[in-house]
Design brief:
Layout: H1 4-23, H2 27-34, H3 38-46, H4 53-62, H5 68-83, H6 98-109, E1 112-117, H7 128-138, H8 144-157, E2 168-174, H9 176-179, H10 185-198, E3 204-209, E4 223-227, E5 236-240, E6 245-248, H11 251-267, H12 271-283
Parallel strand pairs: 1-2, 2-3
Antiparallel strand pairs: 1-4, 4-5, 5-6
Length: 284
């Protein structure tokens, strides 16, 4: 289990090494073409040192990588691994911690996100009122101005659901999420109505684990699985904690969490029955 930037560097390095091999170049060849020392190419490929998005772009030029989506992904990963970056979230770098910026950078480039939530509505599906209430409860004593900015970040993240192409978002929610009155009855009612609306997007799928399901895998904590276009080698699981996030990137971990998510979906209500239950709760 590693922190986000370390995982990003290592996975980015592995992908760059794979692309170099595919181009038929040795590390010595790549270094010569770029005017680098061979040791720099080796350090980048092993994740021992970071690399800037601009340098990644130069490497991809040398390796004749023309796939614009893959190039964009790898350049963003370089930024999130400590090499800089120009995503919208960097405007908030004085407000949000590095691990949150890293999470947003992954979310912005992922093609698919699968998540289990056991206590709150996922951030991508929150209303402004609900996001404000959750943030205020989580960060007690936060000044109003800072709170407003954090809510703005939360809502801006949601653009990925309506991007082109949009993020494919699948969430399994514990039924408790729908009954916990975060922000009070009115805020919660608006949030439930929003869930009904967003669940109708073709790229969003919601499933509820009803109380009747009893215990289930993942009961002790939520998780997020990020998957990326063109390659599964960059997939990562994120476990969120109160003061930090842990990133799991071993194949065994990815397989275990993917299997767990499939099990959760099999035990959860169908999307149609989920929508019916949310509607019924919103009217009660």
């Amino acid at each position: 289990m590693l922190n986000g930037p370390v995982v990003r560097r290592r996975k980015l390095g592995e992908e760059l090494r794979s692309l170099r091999h595919a181009s038929g170049l040795t590390s010595r060849d790549a270094a010569r073409l770029l005017g680098w020392h061979q040791s720099k190419v080796s350090r980048v490929e092993t994740g021992a040192s970071g690399v800037t998005p601009a340098d990644v772009s130069r490497l991809l030029d040398v390796y004749a990588v023309r796939d614009t989506q893959l190039r964009s992904l790898l350049e963003v990963l370089a930024g999130s691994a400590g090499g800089g970056g120009s995503g919208w979230w960097h405007a908030y770098r004085g407000l949000i911690p590095p691990q949150y910026r890293d999470f947003i950078s992954l979310e912005s480039q992922a093609s698919t996100v699968r998540t289990l939530e056991t206590s709150v509505v996922p951030g991508l599906l929150q209303t402004a009122g609900y996001a404000r209430a959750v943030t205020r409860a989580s960060l007690d004593g936060l000044p109003d101005g800072r709170l407003d900015s954090l809510v703005e970040v939360r809502l801006t993240r949601q653009r990925v659901l309506r991007a082109s192409p949009p993020l494919r978002f699948t969430a399994v929610l514990d039924e408790a999420v729908l009954h916990r009155e975060v922000g009070g009855p009115e805020v919660m009612r608006d949030q439930l109505h929003h869930l009904i609306q967003v669940s109708r997007l073709p790229n969003v799928q919601l499933q509820l684990l009803p109380f009747a399901a009893g215990g289930y895998v993942g009961l002790t904590g939520p998780f997020v699985i990020f998957s990326f276009p063109n390659t599964s080698d960059l997939d990562v699981v994120v476990l969120d904690h109160l003061t930090s996030s842990l990133y799991l990137e071993r194949k065994e971990d990815l397989d275990a969490y993917s299997s767990a998510f499939r099990t959760l979906q099999a035990h959860a209500l169908s999307p149609e029955r989920t929508l019916d239950l949310i509607t019924a709760i919103s009217r009660s």
